[in-house]
Amino acid sequence: MAAQPARPERSGPDTTSVMDVSPFKPSLVKAVFRDVTPMHVSRSAAWAAASVTRTVLTEIIDGARRAAAANARKKLIPRDLLSAIDRNVELEVGDKWYAHSPTFQGLTGVLYEAEGVIVPSRKRSMSRKPSAVVGAHRFEAGVKKLLRSQGATAVPAMVRDLDGIASVFLTDLARDAAMVVREGGGKRFGTVTLVMSGEPAPPPFLKDSLRALSTGRGARRTIGRDDILAATTIQLFGGNLRQRALSEAREATQNTSAG
Description:
two-stranded parallel ribbon, about 50% helix
């Protein structure tokens, strides 16, 4: 009897490549960018943005899993998200979502006007104008896929918060990438330098510093991979998360055409 061909082994989260497990498809990334800018988004830029968003969400989920494990729980709840951010300030991203989510009300505190009058809490907007908050539901499938790839489960409120953070983060990334292109792109902003483990990190890549380098607007109308990498350095201040996001984004786009 002829031997049956061996079936390929199922890849787990530790063996699957960044491209294979990316839960945020380029079509979704481009839809978010269209809400922000009329510029064309190259294929490599879409993959890079998807990879960066995945890296950020993976780190948040990992921090929440650690918090849940410390309390002998497996299912993630919003309290674990707060604990993860409290333990690692690098995870404090997508902060425009905080004012919308009940999870973060204790962190944002009470707001006062100049005269000392309490500002009422923000009500849910009924506007049909696209925004990161209104469009957060688009990320639900990707967030659930990412949770499964990490062997994690979460209550609906936690999924909602991860949706919102992903949506706001990617929207901010799109805005910054468009700004990089408008203000000169890689030639004016410089290239992103990746450092190896154990080497000193480069100085912070601040937005004000980027603007100071630009003396005029660029003529380019396409957002490329390097623009996403530059935007990543704006969104993520210096640290391990930034370096990992940059490294994985470059890996994810090594075999992706620029078109």
